[in-house]
Amino acid sequence: MKLDVDVLRYLSKDDFRVLTAVEMGMRNHEVVPSELIDRIACLKHGGTYKVLKNLLKHKLLHHDSSKYDGFRLTYLGYDFLAIKTMVNRGIFTGVGRQIGVGKESDIFEVVKEDGTVLAMKLHRLGRVSFRAVKSKRDYLRHRSSYNWLYLSRLAALKEFAFMKALEEHGFPVPNAVDCNRHCVVMSLVRGYPLVQVKQLQNPGTAFETILGLVVRMAEHGLIHCDFNEFNIMIDDDEKITMIDFPQMVSVSHRNAKMYFDRDVECIFKFFKKRFNLSFEENEDESDDSEIDSDEVCWPRFSEIKKVSGFLDKELAASGFTGKDQEDFERNNNLYLQEGDNTPEHEHGQIEHGVVEEDRLEDNPEEESSQAGCEHDSEAEQVENPELTKRLSKQRQRAIQAARGRKKSSTSRTMYSDKGGRSSYKSKIQKQMSSW
Ligand code: ADP
Ligand code: MG
C-alpha cells in the first residue's frame, strides 16, 4: 500500500473530523454505520456524507454494506490520523521516502522543523503469510472487539515502551521519540541491516557484541525473540544497534528458554555462514551437554543470572499495561508457536523495499470481516453509482432532519442504534475540538 502524503495537504478539518468519528465508532463496531458517523461527527447540513465520499475516494475508508451501510478505517486512514497527531505535537513536519518494509510494518524517514531526520515505523498487523493470518483469525473470532488496527496499536505501544526501557538501561537501540496509534517515531539509525553486509573488518568482535546483547538482555529479564540479521543494524564503524521489539517476552515466559536458544542459534548460524567464523554449534537441546568450541561459548539460559521486575516497572511507566501485554502476547504467541522467527526473507520479505502481497486475497470472504485489511476494490467503491446515490440520499435526509422538516428515517440497509450514546459522543467531541 502506498502512503501518498500529498493527499494530507488537501484534507480539510471536516475530513479529519469524519475520519476521527469512524475511528471512534470502531471502538465498538467492526463496521461503523453511516448514521452513527454522522451523529458523532456532528457536521452541519449533512456534510458527513459528502466527506465520506471524499475519504472513500482517497482510500482512507472502506465501505461495507454486507449487514448495513457502514465504513471502517483503512490502514491509510489510520496512518493519516497518526501522522496528523504527530505533526500537531511538533514531532515532525514532513514525511519523506520509505526506508524499510518489515514483515508487518512500513518505515519512513520523517523530518523535524530543524531539519533532523527521524524514522517513523507504521505497524501493519495482518500483513503476514496467510497461514499466520488464518491462525490469528481463529483466535480473533472469539474476541470480536479485536481488529488489526487495535493489534497494530498495541504492537506500537509495546515497541515504544521496550525501546525506551532498553535505552534507559544503556542498550544500543534507537532513541524512542514518540508513539501514537500504530506509529512509533524513533531516531534514524545510520547503518544497514546486518543481512546486507557481506564483509566486516572484525566479524569476531561484532559476533561477541551481538551475543553479549542477548545475554545482557536476559540478565535484565528480557528475550528479543526475533534476534536475527534483519533486526540488527551495523554502521561503517561496525557499531551495532538492535531494532524491532514488539515480540519481546520476559524470561519468566513459559517458552523463554526455547526463544532464548533460538535467538542465540540465529546469531551463531549467520556468522558461521556469512563470515566463516568457526565454532561448533550447540545442537544438543539439553543444558547438561558438553559444549562446544575453545573460542566461543554457547550461552546457557539456565546459567544466566536474571533480574526480574524490569518488564513490570519500566514498561508500565511508558503506558504499556499488564493487560496490554496479556492481550498482545496471546496474539503474538500464535506467531511464535508456529516456530516463526524464520529470517524474514523466507516470508516473502523485502530486502530492497518491495513487499510481496500474498496474503489476504487468499481468502476474500474472511478478509471483509476484518478491520484494517486493505481491499483492492476500494477504487471501484468510489465509482459505485449505487453507493454515491445512497450517500447523497442520506445527505439530503440529514439536511431535512436538521431543518426539522422531516424526522430522520432509516432505510432497509441502515443501521439502527438502540442505545443512547451521549457520554460517548461528548467524549468524542472533546477530542475533536483539538482538530
Ligand atoms: P518489522 O517489525 O516489520 O520487521 P523493523 O523494525 O525490523 O520492522 O524494520 C524494518 C526495516 O526498516 C529494517 O530492517 C531497517 O532496514 C529499517 N529500519 C527500521 N527502523 C529503523 C531505524 N530506526 N533507522 C533506520 N532504518 C530502520
Ligand atoms: Mg524486523
Q: List ligands, each type once.
A: adenosine-5'-diphosphate, magnesium ion
Q: Measured on Cα atoms, how large is the radius of gyration?
A: 24 Å
The H-and-E topology, N to C, reads as HHEHHEEHEEEHHEEEHEEEEHHHHHHH
What would you call the shape? elongated
| Terminal-residue CA separation | 26 Å
Strand order of the largest sheet: 4-5-6-8-7
Fraction of helical residues = 40-55%
List segments where confidence is low: pLDDT < 50 over at least 5 consecutive residues.
Answer: 137-145, 285-294, 335-380, 407-425, 427-435
Mean pLDDT reading:
77
Largest sheet: 5 strands, antiparallel
What is the percentage of strand-forming residues? 5-15%
- Tally of helical segments: 15
Structural class call reads: alpha+beta
DSSP strand count = 13
Features:
binds adenosine-5'-diphosphate; 3-stranded antiparallel beta sheet; disordered C terminus; 435 residues; binds magnesium ion; alpha+beta
Task: Describe, in plain words, how this protein is organized in 3D.
The protein has helices at 6-10, 13-25, 34-41, 47-57, 75-88, 130-140, 148-168, 203-219, 256-275, 310-317, 322-337, 364-367, 378-383, 385-403, 422-432; strands at 32-33, 61-64, 70-73, 94-102, 105-111, 117-123, 176-180, 183-187, 192-193, 222-223, 232-234, 240-242, 249-250. A hairpin with a 2-residue loop joins strand 4 and strand 5. The protein has 435 residues and is of the alpha+beta class. The chain has 15 helices and 13 strands. Strands 4-5-6-8-7 form a five-stranded antiparallel β-sheet, with helices on both faces. Strands 1-3-2 form a three-stranded antiparallel β-sheet. Strands 9-11-12 form a three-stranded antiparallel β-sheet, covered by helices on one side. Helix 2 (13-25) packs across helix 3 and helix 2 (13-25) crosses helix 4. Magnesium ion is lined by residues 102, 230-231, 244, 344.
